[in-house]
Amino acid sequence: MIDKVILWLKQPIGIVALLIAGVALLSVAGWGIAENQKTPEQPIEFPHKLHVNLGMQCLYCHPGAVKGGSSGLPTQTKCWGCHQQIAMKGSELPKLASYVENNEPIPWVPVAIVPDFVHFRHRPHLAAGLNCENCHGDMTKVNIAENPQVMNMGWCLDCHRVEAASDEEKLIKLTDCGTCHY
Ligand code: HEC
Ligand code: HEC
Ligand code: HEC
Ligand code: HEC
Ligand code: HEC
Question: Taking the model in full, what pTM does it have?
Answer without folding.
Answer: 0.88
